[in-house]
TrEMBL record:
Part of an enzyme complex containing four subunits: a flavoprotein, an iron-sulfur protein, plus two membrane-anchoring proteins, SdhC and SdhD. It comes from the Bacteria. Pathway: Carbohydrate metabolism; tricarboxylic acid cycle. InterPro entries: SQR/QFR_C/D, Succ_DH_anchor, SuccDH_FuR_B_TM-su. This is Succinate dehydrogenase hydrophobic membrane anchor subunit. It is found in: Membrane. The chain crosses the membrane at residues 35-54, 60-82, 103-128. It comes from Devosia ureilytica.
Amino acid sequence: MRDTVITKDMIANPTSHYGNAKASTRHFITQRVTGAINIVFLGFLLFIVVRLAGQDRADIVGVLGAWWVGVPFAVLIGVVAVHMRNGMRDTLEDYMHGSVYRLAMLLNTLFCLLIALAGAGAVLKIVFWG
């Protein structure tokens, strides 16, 4: 990847091309789709939180242990992790450049992957193994 200095003249000139248009479009669509999925799943999450308010551990495991609750909840954790990675990517692109940016993106990706695997794995463990 080349570290090209982007000037105001390049941005103002509609014939200049910089960046990867396909990757930017994919990022834009992914961010919007995961955001919409998060809004839809918000009702499901609120139902679970209200349903489990004041319950003991056995009741929580009983509700999350049902496949029709646990599997969508695990998918929600994965979708939230993808949305979180893309949101942090926007911030990192604004404030970091060069090798520091690449390192920050690697750490961001690994952190989001760790969160997704740990969260979804914990929920799926409850679903399939109690």
